[in-house]
Amino acid sequence: MNSILFLHDTNINTPRGAELTIKELIELGENKGFSISTNLLTHFESAKNEIVNSDLVVLNSTSRCNFEFELLEFLIASSTPYIKVEYDYNFCVRRNILCTVDRNVQSCCNTDKFHLYRKLFAQSELNIFQSPKHYEAHFDFYGKAVSKHLIMPPTVQIEHLKPSTFKQDHTIPFFGDLNYLKGGNAYIDYALEHPKLNFTVYGTNRIRREIPENISFHNPVANTEVLEILGKTKQFICQPVWPEPSGRLAAEAFLSGCEMITNDRIGTFSFEFYPHDKEQAIKEIKQAPENFWNAIQKILVAKKTVEKQKNLGKVLVYKSYGGLGDIFFAIPAINKIAEVSEKVDFAVAPRLVPFFKKYLEKVTVVDETEARNRENNYDNVYELGNYPAFRGYDLPHALKYPTHKKVKQHAIQHYIDTVSKLHKRIDNHLEVYPYFERNPNPKEKYFVVHHGAGFLLKIWPTEKYAALIERLHEMYPHLKCKIIQGPDDPDIKSCFSKKMNHVDYVTGGMEDVGEAMAGALFHIGNDAGITHVAGAFNVPSVGIYGPTGPGSWGSFAKHNELIWGKQGVCNIRCNYDVILNCEHRICLNSVTVERVLEALYKLLQKAYPSAEKSLRANPMLDVQFGKNDCILNLGGNEFLIEYQDDKMKNQLELLFENPINIDAANQDLQLAISLFIQQNILFEIPEFN
Asked: What global pTM score does this model have?
């Protein structure tokens, strides 16, 4: 006898749709001779033990379980086969994907949970959805990961329906609490439009608005009484705000002969039998539990063989829209496609072909102008366009980015999530960026600066870059500086206050830029493509951001510091038109040379922990010396330091003015230095000798 374990986070005697379905499935399974147990997910250890000792797990809802992540990870890693029965949208924190119908809902998903559910669906023996619309919503997010699926209509108990030839035309019922998601506002609006009708709610009021006199509230009733009331009801309103996965109550009303006042957000009504074929609906609903157990029987008797899924064949990938940095963001996703393809050609602009041919290993780089003439030679053609899709999806072969404004993460992960929809075996987890090889030349030590950008309104003032480079030359007189000077970048040479013999200008194409980055000690630049070239070579980087935030487009170098000048100085939400018409550009103009130096100190201290170091005071530090103490001001925090004697005062003055010359033998001073380093008052900076 096969042992089947049902996992669910709610007591199955709860009179709701999911629980009613689970009870019916369990009852039929026991009649078929299966040994069935239920675990309500209150203790992790007991759940693990039952999973290990079961022949198959039926995973229902887990969002209310306080060890959900650990449970799912354990189940995925176990050797016990499982199927996933989805009743809501449990990968979504709100469990309602309201973001697909309300543009004001953004970044609504827990990133880790969203990705974990992708893995859960992909490795399940079968994924069961409540309606065609419910499945389509999941497919939009996860693609091929949910391709192994079964769609089940609501398991309405047809024999309990009580349709009557007598229909009340003066009362319209509502079952459950009157709330926003279930369409409470639409119900109230209809009541206001029909003051002569009665509206009876079997539940409480959860809507914050005035309730008209023709709406009355009553205690909830059992499902048997619900069916009796529906059987005598002429009209039934069901207009949910969220995309209802199933709508068991709506199905019961439809089958009871009610005239449905509804919208397009009810899953049950996406079946072909609605609205004209009740007989077919009854047939499919009766057959649904049988289909469920037939599918389980096939899983249990199937031989455990490794599934061989056809690869994507010969693939052409375009990235024909967006800036240079967006190409680097897309590289991990393109490599994911290559892992499940016979061959991948990556089409880029002609000027970029030599550069990417040199550094990309898993794909063949081709000229996009030539590739467009031979698309018929490929099994699949994909256009990555740009994240987010600024031009919509009107490009030929364009892939959609369903996670945009829903999952808060870097653009790199959005590209990966999108291509993972193409094939079940594409793992949407990024372990590490596929960095290009670096080759620092020990005889020529230098850093790189790029003061320009493709969109010049996103650049930090050029005169500040010049002042920064002069300050860095005082710090590191033995280091050279290589400035990336594109044809449209501002002229920085005229901004220097003196002749800068240590500065070289990189004015060639991308191959020259790549060669410069491959040997750089660190890089400083704007929110621009060259900063992401530095990221591709894993060069420690300082990025200066203004109108656009670094959340989705920040540097992906292992060691980086990001300055977002907008925070705390401007609360205007920027778009292209706002940026074009912004006169003060305070988000960038407010960033000082000292602030960039502070970020650089933090960066170098992290990136070169084993190098020979010297102490430097934080450039943003303000020190006020008094007779018996001094006050240190840094980032809105104050530190009061009291002197023991004049000698200690002199040592502190020297420490903050020229810490390089501090006496290393003074133990009391060394304790203070350790504390100051912890608070970022002092930094240990590599000397690069």
From this structure: 0.80
